[in-house]
Each structure stands twice: as C-alpha cells, then as structure tokens.
Design goal:
The complex is a heterodimer of chains A (about 250) and B (about 425). Chain A is α/β, with parallel strands linked by helices and about 250 residues long. Chain A is built from 9 helices and 12 strands. In chain A, strands 6-9-10-3-11-12 form a 6-stranded mixed β-sheet, sandwiched between helices. In chain A, helix 5 packs parallel to helix 6. Chain A is globular, with a radius of gyration of 18 Å. The two termini of chain A are about 30 Å apart. Chain B is α/β, with parallel strands linked by helices. Chain B has one domain. In chain B, the strands form 3 sheets. In chain B, strands 1, 6, 7, 9, 10, 12, 13, 15, 17, 19, 21 and 23 form a 12-stranded mixed β-sheet that branches. In chain B, strands 3-2-8-11-14-16-18-20-22-24 form a 10-stranded mixed β-sheet, covered by helices on one side. In chain B, a hairpin with a 2-residue loop joins strand 2 and strand 3. In chain B, helix 2 crosses helix 5. Chain B starts with 5 loop residues before the first helix and ends with a helix. The chains are: A alpha/beta (about 250), B alpha/beta (about 425). At the A-B interface, helix 2, strand 7, helix 3 and strand 8 of A face helix 6 and helix 7 of B.
C-alpha cells in the first residue's frame, strides 16, 4: 500500500533523507529505529505532508497514487494517519468538534454519510474509555492542558476513530510511563488487521515489546541501512546504535 | 489646518429638540461652539472621522418597517423582551414585551417600558439617572445625542429577569441619522441581561448613548452588538457606574459598519465590585473600528478583567485603547487587561494601546497585547486529520473568538452570536 523509492528530502538547505526505500503491504507492521538525527521523524512527516520539508528526489506511492502530489488533508481522507510526536494544543476547538469534523471529512471522501453529533458521541465514548480517556475530555479543547501521556493517548484515540489504512506513529512512546505505554500499545494492537498497515518510528525497543513488528529497519544518516525481523530490535537494544553506525560508515 | 467644516454637516444632520429642559438646553448651547475632534487629538489619532463628512446627513424619517424585513436580524432564536426603535423612534409593531412585569416610570407613573421622550425629566427615577453619567460636556457624541434623541428605552430592573431584554435600534433611509438613547438601571439585587443591537440597511449614521447604573448587589450582563450595513457609521458612547458588591459584564461585538467608534467608560464606585468587559471585533473590506475603553477603580477591593479580540481581514483596521485608572484609594485592586489580534490578511492593520495609570501601591494590575496570524502547526494538525484548509482556517479563527463568546451566559444568545461570527467570517 505504501511504496517509497529513493526518497530524498531536505529542510532548508540541509539534506536529511538521502535515498529511502521502503514498501509496506496491507497487514504489516514496520518499525523504524535509529539514533537521534538519523531522519526517522522527517520520514514520518514527509509522508504526512508537512511542508517544512522539500522532497528533492524519489517517489512515494500510496495505493498506487502519487502521495507527494496530494495536499495534507487529501492524504488524510485517503486513509493516511500520523500520530504526532508533539501533538498540538488548539484552545477554543473542542476534541469532539474537531474529531467529528475530521471523521465526517473522511466519511464524505469515501462516500459514506456524515454522522450527526449524537451518533458520533455514541461511537466515540466507548473508544475513549478503552484508552483510559475520560469522556469529558471530548468537551475540552484539543490537547489543551493535557499531560504528555494524555496527549499521546488522544492521538491513538483519534486513530481508533478515524480507522486509517496506514498509520504512522512518530515516537509515540516518548515521554510515556510503562502504564501509558501499555494503553497505547493495546490501542494499536486492537487496530491491527490484515487491511491495515503501520509504520512505527521509535528510538527505543521497549514499545516493540508490546507492539510486535513484522519488520524492523534501522535508519542512519538518512537511509535505511539494515532490515530484519523483530529480533533486530532486541539486538539494537543490547548493542546500541554505534555498531550500526560503524558498520555503515565502513561500507560507505 | 483649521477645524474641518464637517462639524456643521454632522450637527445639521440631526434634528435638535429644544424642549426647554436643562439637559437639552446645555447640550444645544454646547453644540453652538462644538467642533469635531481631529486626528491631532490623541484620543482620535487613528479614527478616520472624515468618513462622517462624506455625505450630507439628514434626520432619519419616521417609518414603520414590517417585522418580516428585520426579524432575522432580531435574534429570533433568543427568548427575549424585545423593544425596537426605528430611526430613534419607538416602534410598537416590532416590539414584543407584553409579559414583561417590571415597573418603569413615565411622567411619574409606573409603566412597563418607558419611552424617554414622554418620560418627563421631573419624574423621579429618570431624573435621578438620565444624563447623570453622560454629561453633554463630554465629547461631541454626548452633546449631539442629548440634544437630538427622541424616544429611548428606560430599562429598570429590580429582580432576577427570566429572559433578556433586547433593545434593537434600526437605522433606515438614505443618509439617515439617529440618536438612540438607552438608560439601564439595575436596582439593588437585580439580575438581568440586556442586549443592545444596532442594525442598518444602508448608509446611515447612528450616535447612540447608553447610560448604565449597576446598583449594589446587582448583576448585569450587557451585550452590545454592532451589526449594521457595511456603509453605516456608528459613533457610540456607553457610560457605566457600579456600586458596592455589583457585577457588570460587558460584551462589545462589532461586525458591521464602515466606521465604528465606541467609547465604553466604567466607573467603579463601590467596593467588592466585579467587572468583566470584553470585545470581539471582526472586520473585513475597508471597515474601521475604534474601541476605547476606560475603567476607573475608585475604591479598594475590586477586580476587573478585560479581553478584546480583533479578527481583521481585507484592508480593515482595528484600534484598541484600553485605559485603566487605579485611584489612590483603590488598594487591593486586581485588574487584568488583554488585547489579542488575529491578522487574516497582509493588508489588515491594528493599533493597540494599553494605558494603565496606577496611583495606589498595593494592587495587582497586568496588561498584554498580542498580534499574530493563524498558527501553522495548528493548521497542519487539523489538516492532517482530513479537515480541508478553508475549514481548518475557519475553525481556528472561530476558536480565537470563542474564548470571549463562551463567557456569555445565555446559551441561545451565545449560539446566535457564534452563527453571526461564522457568517461574517464566511464572507471575508
């Protein structure tokens, strides 16, 4: 469903991605690990369409369509979801209003009828509860005054409501204690299915104890330098990233 | 540059009513030598008063429009006691307050709602209040209004009201002037909401004056909505006096008119009084709105909060001047003022001037002003969930104003104002 070929991207004049190749098929969970500054988050944000980055080379196809030609919201309504590393606070817009607008935009794009406020509330209340979010948060402003953990759970909650085809999680585990991490992982695992793909960007292996990936890739200096199964994550945890960097430097 | 000749044009556009009362006499006498302020005057530095000089104004004609023409602008979904004035004259046909059970005075006798022109100055309640806050010696608006007003509402409340009183002023007719006059008296223990709406169907000029007394232990919510035609001019004056333990909440909403200049002056005369005075000003095209507020903390132990928000599109211009005076005796004052502006176009402009003058030494006073554009990260966040760009912008703009509108207690009124804002933003 996602095919990335030779993707190069830069921010201002600085190249960050230097030829990324990655294919994700429906039902697969891919994890990207790597040291800080290797380009993991850049990749996640380029896929979502953040315009701070300029793609200089390469292609990204999503279900056969040129993703890079689509606006941010057009990507979203086609089933792409980014769970933010730093979810944004939006005072004055309630979570309920925001999420219903988003859901209805997605439903409209796929030819489904829009949901009224009542049907929407029925749908979301249970999902909020399963993520340990109090239903009163729906009336509060988007992420405003939320703790770090609440913000991350809210991202997973939005994902559960929008049911994307491909979800990209950008360091969703950062800043979470072990209980919150488990809640987030349970939320992701509940959505795993043969039609849905996941790309999980993380610095640490511990999230992958709970969300067991099908593939693990290591990113260094803007490229995926090593790929493997879930054991690769354990190896990285044990040995750190330096051996990858050394090996990669030796190859270059 | 000598004083512009527009003064005469403006003053002759009103019918001055010399009924022999002291109030009128003083006003008429003042007008003889009156000049419009110019931009050299600090208080009018940014106000394009030349927009008052562009047409030959005439006194607004007597006319009785059909309710159907205006009902959509009269907050139809808000349960209300409605009192309507057309070009400053009371219109029984458009008004609807039949079950209002509060007492007012006319010629010394209790009536339901008074028409100022027929409530003689000798009647006790009116005499005790009318013109007491708004002295004709004050700026031109006061003098012109006091010499020219015809009818006016006297809203005297002495209990908790079950629904808002809505005083609507309709200006109609080519180049028509009107001088709406409203007197609001919240007696001790009263709890009421009074809405003032200003409407127009073309190039009209309104010089409204509202005097507000909030007596001890009274609570008054006062919503003033400027929603006139985009060719209209509106020069308004609101004078408020608060007594001990009173609460006054003012919401100043400006969506309409080519030129708006409002002066809202609040004098807090009694201890333990609470004041909240906020504004939402949404402009586009070449609209100009100039809002000056002044709050005097004259006594100790009072608190005041003020938030003015501008949403400026097109080539519009907003001006905010917020004065807070903390008098020498007003120890333990807690005053907070905020002015925030969202510039929605590269050609929109705002001038903001907080002005705190503090003569007491044990007080807490803060002020702040911000000017910005829509947050890029928030736009990206909304769009990343599938919300299209225009809708996402609308949501953020609306959210900016909602912080103020959400404070309005009456739910149907709040929702009506939210809809008006959405409609206003949709056209810009």
């Amino acid at each position: 469903m996602l095919e990335i070929q030779n993707l190069h991207a830069r921010v201002e004049e600085k190249p960050i991605l230097k030829g990324v190749n990655l294919t994700i098929n429906p039902g697969e969970v891919h994890a990207i690990m790597g040291p800080n500054g290797s380009g993991k988050s850049t990749l996640a944000n380029v896929i979502a369409g953040r315009d701070d980055y300029e793609v200089t080379e390469g292609t990204v196809l999503f279900e056969g369509e040129d993703l890079l030609e689509l606006a941010v919201d057009e990507r979203a309504v086609r089933g792409l979801f980014l769970a933010f590393q730093y979810p944004v606070e939006i005072p004055g817009v309630s979570n309920a209003y925001f999420l219903r607008s988003a859901l209805n935009a997605c439903r409209k794009a796929s030819g489904q009828p829009e949901l009224d406020a009542l049907k929407f509330m029925t749908l979301v209340k249970d999902k909020a509860k399963s993520l340990g979010l109090d239903a009163t948060m729906l009336q509060r402003s988007v992420n405003e005054g939320f703790s770090g953990g609440e913000k991350k759970r809210n991202e997973i909650f939005q994902m559960a409501v929008l049911e994307p085809k491909l979800a990209v999680l950008d360091e969703t585990d950062s800043g979470l204690d072990i209980d919150a991490l488990k809640v987030v992982a349970d939320g992701v695992n509940a959505l795993r299915g043969r039609d849905r793909g996941f790309l999980i960007v993380t610095h640490y292996q511990r999230l992958l104890d709970h969300i067991v990936p099908d593939f693990v890739h290591v990113m260094a200096d803007g490229r995926l330098v090593k790929s493997g199964g879930k054991d690769l994550a354990l190896e990285l945890e044990k040995k750190g990233y330096s051996w990858i960097e050394e090996q990669f430097a030796g190859k270059a | 540059m000598s004083a512009p000749a527009m003064d005469r044009t403006l003053i002759s556009g009103f019918e001055h009513r010399d009924d022999g009362s002291n109030l009128r006499n003083q006003a008429v006498a003042l007008l003889a030598g009156q000049e419009l302020p110019s931009t050299r005057d600090e208080e009018y530095k940014y106000t394009p008063l030349n927009r008052l000089n562009e047409v030959a104004w005439v006194p607004g004609p007597s006319t009785q429009p059909e309710l159907t023409e205006w009902i959509n602008h009269l907050l139809p979904d808000v349960e209300q006691y409605r009192v309507v004035f057309v070009n400053g004259k009371y219109d029984a046909n458009l008004s609807n307050y039949s079950d209002l059970d509060i007492a007012f005075l006319r010629d010394g006798h209790p009536i339901e709602l008074g028409q100022l022109a027929t409530a003689s100055e000798s009647s006790y309640e009116v005499a005790a209040h009318l013109g007491r806050l708004c002295k004709p010696a004050m700026p031109l608006t006061a003098a012109v209004n006091t010499s020219a007003f015809y009818d006016g509402a006297v809203i005297r409340v002495d209990r908790k009201l079950d629904k808002p009183v809505h005083v609507a002023h309709i200006a109609t007719g080519k180049h028509a002037t009107s001088a709406p006059r409203t007197l609001i008296v919240a007696e001790p223990g009263a709890d009421a909401t009074v809405i003032e709406t200003y409407l127009s169907d073309g190039e009209t000029l309104s010089l409204p004056v509202t005097e507000v007394f909030v007596h001890s232990n009274a609570t008054l919510e006062h919503i003033r909505i400027g929603n006139e035609d985009l060719l209209a001019r509106h020069i308004g004056l609101v004078e408020v006096r608060q007594e001990r333990n009173s609460t006054y909440r003012s919401y100043n909403i400006v969506f309409g008119a080519s030129l708006t200049r409002n002066d809202i002056n609040i004098f807090v005369a009694g201890e333990n009084a609470h004041t909240r005075f906020d504004g939402v000003i949404a402009l586009d095209g070449d609209q100009h709105a100039d809002n000056h507020t002044r709050l005097d903390h004259a006594v100790p132990h009072c608190e005041s909060f003020e938030i003015y928000k501008h949403l400026l599109g097109g080539k519009s211009r907003g001006v905010f001047n917020g004065k807070i005076f903390v008098h020498q005796d007003a120890q333990k004052t807690d005053a907070k003022q905020t002015n925030m502006t969202l510039l929605l176009s590269p050609h929109a402009q705002v001038d903001t001037k907080p002005q705190l003058e503090i003569f007491a030494d044990d007080v807490k006073c803060t002020h702040g002003a911000t000017i910005g554009q829509l947050r890029k990260d928030a736009l990206f966040y909304l769009r990343s969930r599938g919300i299209d760009e225009a809708t996402a912008q609308g949501l953020l703009v609306y959210a900016f104003a909602a912080e103020v509108l959400e404070l309005i207690q009456n739910e149907s009124l709040r929702s009506a104002l939210e809809q008006m804002l959405v409609a206003k933003l949709g056209t810009s």
